[in-house]
Amino acid sequence: MSPEEFRNQGKQMIDWIADYYENIEQYPVLSQVKPGEIKNQLPDSAPLESESMTQIMEDVNSIIMPGITHWQSPNFYAFFPSNSSGPSILGDLLSSGLGVQGMIWATSPACTELETRVLDWLSEMLQLPEKFKSSSDGGAVIQDTASSAALSAILAAREKKTNYETNDSGSLGNLVAYVSMHTHSSVEKAIKIAGIGKNNLRLIGVDENLAMRPDLLETAIKNDLQNGLIPFFVCATVGTTSTNAMDPLPEIGQICQQYELWMHIDAAMSGTAAICPEYRYLLNGVEYADSFSFNPHKWMFTNFDCNCFFVADRSVLIKTLSILPEYLKNQATESGAVFDYRDWHIQLGRRFRSLKLWFVIRHYGVNGLRYHIRQHINLAQQFAEWVRSSDEFDLVTPAPLNLVCFAHKSGNDFNRKLLETINNKGKMYFTHTVINNQYVLRMCIGQTNTKEEHVDLAWKIIQETAKELSYQKL
Amino acid sequence: MSPEEFRNQGKQMIDWIADYYENIEQYPVLSQVKPGEIKNQLPDSAPLESESMTQIMEDVNSIIMPGITHWQSPNFYAFFPSNSSGPSILGDLLSSGLGVQGMIWATSPACTELETRVLDWLSEMLQLPEKFKSSSDGGAVIQDTASSAALSAILAAREKKTNYETNDSGSLGNLVAYVSMHTHSSVEKAIKIAGIGKNNLRLIGVDENLAMRPDLLETAIKNDLQNGLIPFFVCATVGTTSTNAMDPLPEIGQICQQYELWMHIDAAMSGTAAICPEYRYLLNGVEYADSFSFNPHKWMFTNFDCNCFFVADRSVLIKTLSILPEYLKNQATESGAVFDYRDWHIQLGRRFRSLKLWFVIRHYGVNGLRYHIRQHINLAQQFAEWVRSSDEFDLVTPAPLNLVCFAHKSGNDFNRKLLETINNKGKMYFTHTVINNQYVLRMCIGQTNTKEEHVDLAWKIIQETAKELSYQKL
């Protein structure tokens, strides 16, 4: 494709995307297709000869679009947000256009150095301790997801605890890690990947707010020590996926310090709130952490994938994941003059992801980001208030930020039916969780374009549908 | 950013990228900046207030661009290609615009089903055995990189061999894996991540063409068995990174079959050549493989990241990486009605990457892709012929495809100086390897826009610079 044709086709694609955002509310939020429906419309074999962009875009419109669940719709309240924005899409487009492979500093110095600088900005925006800055012994790197960040933390913790012996001789099945019963399942996956074994992952009990109980954590650690096992890692969560529960970081941190465990903090969605001074308290205790991660691709207007992973002692991470003999690389790396980011995560290759993050932060400004985060939280708090004042619905857990967990008083079957009925209507999409055998509805408010009118409408739909279903039941 | 502003800014960005490709040869291919030079031009703190796209793009031009090594330049011959194309950039742009998170089928059915279909197309284009097709017991998934694909293969092999016991109880340091001395270092990294330990990775010796020697592989396996260890995994390479050596797949495959080892094939760059019938022989023996991967983001005009990972028995992979209890998910997944791709790789979240691959295959058509691959190979073969006929240079290894390894007759120091001098001139960029203590120059020809005139120029620059350096030496 010549630059001229790219110019022409590219502008049409930009128009297509702008049109999409203008009309996004006209699509059913949750795709209504059945398994196989999309695949069966696509030819069995690749075309031998070239096809035009017009043909391709016709198929996008007729075949692909019905199979899209519209994550960017302002009426999307499911799972967690994965919000995006114009500047992010443009930063990502620039990254694709440059086509840079930033595996080491030398393969494009700007790719490494912009990333380092922007992550230091974020460190300051979140008021993280100095140790996480690149100018100290720590630093940060963009990873794809919080899952990969957790895996990297587990590996660094494993190597630090075994004095890098596991990298040489393999795991021995005697290391033990700790999470709460509500920690995201990606940690269990990472524990299996790292050769620790899920039988060596303790699921610590939670308090009435579904936050990890430090007393039970300490009991479990003591018990494992008595049995000759080696506790090495704790993951504390700021805002669990299920209910946005907040593990008590200072208490967990003190235990990690006392027993010499690596403390990782997963603040995937909720970490973003801490850029607002009034929500920074959520990160109190982060000073104990060895690593910390959050996802601008969830709630900071940066399109997937973009996880920011901060580490207090980069030398441990690098020594764990570097594949070059130390004598070749470490002097430059440890001096801080040059980071080779391929030694900071699982993959070797990497794209220029800091561009989109840089575009987003500059386009919004820190105050602009704070404004939108506060709007989302205010909308969620308003929704929680409606639930509290309602005769038909109960608030099931505290709603500290932008996630509201609630249920109709008519029981699990009713709530299941209510969710299904509403999602099939296509006007909004939300999901559920299960807490102590109770089927609970989740409204997570964080899409870029969600405004008061959308949340008003959602509450109206929920109430009306509940009334209809109650009536049918009578 | 409103849709209208996005429309306006987006078109300017498209123009910027089109201009970039029109003028790309005017930049020095290898960035000439010093460590810290980019970072020090960027402010210490994020801006509090919004900045305009004009300001941001001014900084892209003045600060970022000098720190770019131009991977998309037709004069880029370093490492391996990471080629891109107009349709790929547009497919990726559409993916960013839709902002879909395809972790499971239900979160956007089109994201899963297009991927399955396009990977089946590729399976056919590469004439892979039926077992790798989604309609059989196997299937394929897009991963970010060949490193992650190798890690996934190692994990599946580990679990299959231990009857899923390692996932439960952790590794035991008695599993052994095999690669050649020239296998990519990502496999060593994956072996460490998986808790196998690098002492349990055997580096098998190579023949005169730097391909793995099956007799030494079998000896090593027998030796480990005698010592009570458990051989479980072999990675064979189609086109090593260093010299494009081709491991003998049928012989290695037979040994894997006999001793019940998982056979993974890494064809990261060179796999693409097999879409041309005359190069399909490179994959002879793939019928023995349990898994196979190659990177359209290297040599198939699809921008990073896009690795295609094929597996012969998807149930092993899914059972290894699934984090949901089996009774919840496996009936739908194993029936083939629904794939939840988050259970096919390390990460949970995933973007809509099949769009760019679909755009590329349809824009070029299979014949178009073949045409460009053949052009690259012809150019490299022409270059190899020039080296062979030269009095000053030697061809160091066979050049089966698009990589030529050669050296000036004047020894290591001279070649090192030659490479450095040429790369600093900025007209082209190539890199080196070391083979049996010999410093060897590498010309890897695979950039989308590399034509005869560029390779002519490269050979001219190399010859002239060598003459200048020889003259200075006298």
TrEMBL record, chains A, B:
<dbReference type="GO" id="GO:0030170">
    <property type="term" value="F:pyridoxal phosphate binding"/>
</dbReference>
<dbReference type="GO" id="GO:0016831">
    <property type="term" value="F:carboxy-lyase activity"/>
</dbReference>
<feature type="modified residue" description="N6-(pyridoxal phosphate)lysine">
    <location>
        <position position="298"/>
    </location>
</feature>
<dbReference type="InterPro" id="IPR010977">
    <property type="entry name" value="Aromatic_deC"/>
</dbReference>
<dbReference type="InterPro" id="IPR002129">
    <property type="entry name" value="PyrdxlP-dep_de-COase"/>
</dbReference>
<dbReference type="GO" id="GO:0006520">
    <property type="term" value="P:amino acid metabolic process"/>
</dbReference>
<comment type="similarity">
    <text>Belongs to the group II decarboxylase family.</text>
</comment>
<dbReference type="Pfam" id="PF00282">
    <property type="entry name" value="Pyridoxal_deC"/>
</dbReference>
<dbReference type="GO" id="GO:0005737">
    <property type="term" value="C:cytoplasm"/>
</dbReference>
<dbReference type="InterPro" id="IPR015422">
    <property type="entry name" value="PyrdxlP-dep_Trfase_small"/>
</dbReference>
<keyword id="KW-0210">Decarboxylase</keyword>
<dbReference type="InterPro" id="IPR015421">
    <property type="entry name" value="PyrdxlP-dep_Trfase_major"/>
</dbReference>
<dbReference type="GO" id="GO:0019752">
    <property type="term" value="P:carboxylic acid metabolic process"/>
</dbReference>
<keyword id="KW-0663">Pyridoxal phosphate</keyword>
<keyword id="KW-0456">Lyase</keyword>
<protein>
    <submittedName>
        <fullName>Aromatic-L-amino-acid decarboxylase</fullName>
    </submittedName>
</protein>
<dbReference type="InterPro" id="IPR015424">
    <property type="entry name" value="PyrdxlP-dep_Trfase"/>
</dbReference>
